[in-house]
Amino acid sequence: MAQLKDFLRLKTPLLFFVKSKYRQGKKNNNLKKPAEIANGYKVERLIRWYEKEGNALVGESILKGISLADLQKLLSESANSPMFFSYELTTEQVKYFQQYLEQDFDTNAYDYFLECDAI
C-alpha cells in the first residue's frame, strides 16, 4: 500500500503540469477570432464558385474580416436577417469581396455565391 501512495504522489505534479499546459493552449487558441454566432449557431461565411456550364463546385474560400451588418448592406438584406441562404453575387459584389480574399475571380467562367455553413 505504501508503494501505491508513493506512486500517486509522484504522478500528482505531472498531472498538474499537463493540465496547466492544456489550459495555456486553450488560452492561446482564444487569441484567434471567435466563430460568428447567428441565431445560436456557429457559422462561417464562404465565397463558393461553380461552373457556368454543369454547375459543379470549383472552389471555395472562407470569408473573414467582414461583419454580418456589412454583408446585409451589400446584399440589401434586412438588419434582422441571419443570412443563412445562398446568395448569387453580381460582378460588382465579387469585386468587393476581392479585397477580403487574396485571389483573382473570373466572372466570365464561374458563378459566385455567398454561402453560410454551420460549424
What would CATH call the homologous superfamily of the largest domain?
Answer: Cloacin immunity protein
Uncertain spans: 4-32
Secondary-structure-based class equals: alpha+beta
Q: How many H/I helices?
A: 3
Mean pLDDT: 77
Q: Give helix and strand order, one letter per element, not per position.
A: HEEEHEHE
CATH architecture of the largest domain: Roll
What's the CATH class label of the largest domain? Alpha Beta
Q: Taking Cα atoms only, what radius of gyration do you get, to the nearest Å?
A: 23 Å
Report on this model:
The protein is α+β, with helices and mostly antiparallel strands. The protein has 2 domains: 1-32; 36-118, Chitinase A, domain 3, CATH 3.10.50. 35% of the residues lie in helices and 27% in strands. The chain has 3 helices and 5 strands. Strands 1, 2, 3, 4 and 5 form a 5-stranded antiparallel beta sheet that branches. Strand 2 (41-51) and strand 3 form a beta hairpin.
Provide keyphrases for this structure:
single chain; 119 residues; alpha+beta; Chitinase A, domain 3; 2 domains; 5-stranded antiparallel beta sheet; 5 strands; globular
Quick recap:
The protein has helices at 2-29, 68-74, 91-97, and strands spanning 36-38, 41-51, 57-63, 87-88, 110-118. It is α+β, with helices and mostly antiparallel strands and 119 residues long.
Topology:
Blueprint: H1 2-29, E1 36-38, E2 41-51, E3 57-63, H2 68-74, E4 87-88, H3 91-97, E5 110-118
Antiparallel strand pairs: 1-2, 2-3, 2-5, 4-5
